[in-house]
Amino acid sequence: QHNTKTYQYEDYKETADWILAQTNQRPKVAIICGSGLGGLADLLEDKTVFPYESIPRFPTSTVQGHAGKLVFGKLQGRECVCMQGRFHFYEGYDMHTVTYPVRVFSLLGVETLIVTNAAGGVNEAYSVADIMLIKDHINMPGFAGQNPLCGHNDERFGVRFPCMSDAYDRRLRDLAKQTAAEQGCGSFLQEGVYCMLAGPTYETIAECRFLQTLGADALDGTPELMS
């Protein structure tokens, strides 16, 4: 059962204004830390930490391993904000709630969103623990009408019909590949197509074969980019 909510611009602004009043940091980069990656936020310096439950209108994480904290700080000298834990459709949240933080980030002044997650690979050329840069995606729930952009469109957040053909910035992907090569990680860095699924069950063998034929390389359930 999904608790469908409708958010107005004023709701996002209320959350953003509260955060801006609590910290002097104004990050241009936001990082959503997926399963097992929350430790990245612990590396930030000059941290300001907000438990999700303390933030007005912010959802809360219910999945084990998702700390449920919004962490502001500096990473390699650059201000950024990290989500230690995300929200999932399978937790009972609707798509508008799952992607609520992304629009808040926009009002905070964030310009670059880095989304990470632990995903299942269906590309047989991949190995366990490979890192995959997303170059494109398949939104399976969207085929059934579960898209975070359904409903009233507020032009202050973007156009009614956004083009998704270049959603994953090529310049940032090239930078990631260059950095991986410099750090000796190029041998296990892949670039592929990510398929979003609803969860929480893992896919059957037949489903994996089907998704392979569609061109998917990795599978999970994170729709934040579409918001």
TrEMBL record:
Asked if the record carries the keyword Lipid biosynthesis, the reply is no
This enzyme catalyses:
inosine + phosphate = alpha-D-ribose 1-phosphate + hypoxanthine; 2'-deoxyguanosine + phosphate = 2-deoxy-alpha-D-ribose 1-phosphate + guanine; 2'-deoxyinosine + phosphate = 2-deoxy-alpha-D-ribose 1-phosphate + hypoxanthine; guanosine + phosphate = alpha-D-ribose 1-phosphate + guanine
Q: Which UniProt keywords apply?
A: Glycosyltransferase, Purine salvage, Transferase
What InterPro entries does this protein map onto?
Nucleoside_phosphorylase_d, Nucleoside_phosphorylase_sf, Purine_phosphorylase, Purine_phosphorylase-2_CS
Would the keyword Transferase turn up in this protein's UniProt record? yes
The source's domain of life comes to Eukaryota
**A Gene Ontology CC term for this entry?**
cytoplasm
- An example molecular function term from Gene Ontology annotations: purine-nucleoside phosphorylase activity
Q: Which GO terms describe its biological process?
A: purine ribonucleoside salvage
All copies of the Nucleoside phosphorylase domain together span 28-220
**Where does the record place a coiled coil?**
none
Protein EC:
2.4.2.1
What pathway or pathways are given for this protein in its record?
Purine metabolism; purine nucleoside salvage
Entry function: Catalyzes the phosphorolytic breakdown of the N-glycosidic bond in the beta-(deoxy)ribonucleoside molecules, with the formation of the corresponding free purine bases and pentose-1-phosphate. Preferentially acts on 6-oxopurine nucleosides including inosine and guanosine.
Which PANTHER family is this protein grouped with? METHYLTHIOADENOSINE/PURINE NUCLEOSIDE PHOSPHORYLASE, PURINE NUCLEOSIDE PHOSPHORYLASE
Please name the NCBIfam families in this protein's record: PNPH-PUNA-XAPA, PRK08202.1
Membership in a protein family: Belongs to the PNP/MTAP phosphorylase family.
| Protein name (record) | Purine nucleoside phosphorylase
Recorded source organism is Salarias fasciatus (Jewelled blenny)
Q: Which gene encodes it?
A: pnp6
